[in-house]
Design brief:
single chain; alpha/beta; Rossmann fold; four-stranded antiparallel beta sheet; 22% strand; binds pantoate
Amino acid sequence: MPICGRGEALMPELISDLKEMRRVVKEARRAGKTVGFVPTMGYFHRGHLSLMERAREENDLVVVSIFVNPTQFGPTEDFREYPRDLERDLALAGEVGVDIVFHPPVEDMYPPPYRTYVEVEGITETLCGAFRPGHFRGVTTVVTKLFHLVPADRAYFGAKDAQQALVIRKMVEDLNFDIEVVICPTVREEDGLAMSSRNVYLGEEERRAATALYRSLCVARDLLEKGERNSSSILSEMHRVLDEEPLVRPEYVEIVDCQEMRPLDRVEGEVVVALAARVGRARLIDNLMLRVDEEGITLLP
Ligand code: PAF
């Protein structure tokens, strides 16, 4: 499936060794190069590639990690089935000019007995945190480890995982990491479905039904544009759109503020209109990050 197509691409260097990874990045920085880092779990789509392109534009050296992180999956979740295709990923990363792909083995990232975890409190209990206990602890733990192994200037995350991006930004601030967190816009299919590696789980009918997620976000945006600020009125219209699709089983539909991730009664300031739903065996999330003020609404980031 050609999803990019820049022509003659160089394959990125593949590094699996943790110490070698850190050595290469430190050496580049000592030589005065800036380093951009894109942490991923692989199985690239255009969303991932847009992060890599942004990192390419803004840095001398671009490192992408591919690591399906076991600690962020619950015991009944899809860690084993999560799609993986290293060869394809390397070729795609090469096409957008990535220099290095870091692909560490699980047993080196979590040598037994592994005992140390990083947890951000207060903003990880709502939205996805409420449905995936321990998920954000796994994310912040692995991202901390990755930031130590790839001590970059900037790290790039997609706004599709808005709560994850804001949790990581808070962790970076609280733990004084010397890295800039760059949040990049969600990349969508033509019909609005947000790009996700988990979209491969969708059958034909489910794929069609899944467009209801973005349609319900558009309804929220239109109401806000017309001046509606009452959260429950907006949420009930969003539910109406989702309820028209029996294949879509919503987990949550919320409007929260970007700082505390708490549900708002009145929609004002920097907010996330967020939802998660099961469609077949896929769990899909999507959101709009918005600034809402007297001027109107602005799409973030
Ligand atoms: O967004 C992802 O792909 C993952 O949660 C991340 C940030 C790479 C951590 O495993």
